[in-house]
């Protein structure tokens, strides 16, 4: 393809390209995705795996597919200098064969994948082993009055096509329309959506996250991290979507650098009897950290929830007294806005495992701390 902004670009990773022959592979073809809604109880899985399995899952970004972008990714990306053969064929097929219902979210979600034997009360552990860039470009956008500067002169519906450097390490964008000068920022790919099916009769909207996980947008969920989700329905019915190449905490304009990824994920189950009565909701471990979350439409409540979940996690993993844990968190743990634009606000904490010499020794603690790295 022609280099945009003068930078050489690598080729796209089309569906099936480079997938090991023995892999459990779930492509993002139209029969295996939902658009704007999440899996619910009773949905038929697109694949079934045993606990401990590794799966390879393709995701596609909604940018370039939406109505306000013309619902034609070939034309949309072609307008930015992308050759026809460098547009993902599965993105083109989803637009051609699927219709996003009015009022649904923007996200294309791949799945669900059944994890045989998972039951409500268990935790599904999703370890992110690898995230491969499927395209050398992506889009950042704001729209619908949903960014943090809604109602100001910066409000509106607009976006920026961004390119990726040949080594896949940085994204670039012009500092002003038509400017030859670029801003360059590091990439840290992660999946904005990883979730389990909700125990509901209807499929819920893809935008707000919740106890099921979903659109939690925690940028620490890069390769090497593990996300823990409370199973809601039999066999968990796991799914992924909303791939990002990079995101700032807060995701303040509305979107991150939205761009497609191929995810290699290890799925495991922690049985309910090991979880005990710890009401900790979604949390993660990796990069030397344990990462509690808090979710609520009110940012203050989301922060309070995250702090309470952190106190519970400290007790479960390190046998801390709740009051001592509360004081420790105030002195030693950062609490960060994950995102403030997804109807339900998100906060996450960063607890350093290295701060604790003593652990509880429980099966849950051994597993979680083993994933923290």
TrEMBL record:
Domain of life (superkingdom): Bacteria
Gene Ontology terms for molecular function: hydrolase activity, acting on carbon-nitrogen (but not peptide) bonds, in linear amides
Cross-referenced InterPro entries: FmdA_AmdA
Protein name: Formamidase
Protein's organism: Nocardia camponoti
Gene name in the database record: fdmA2
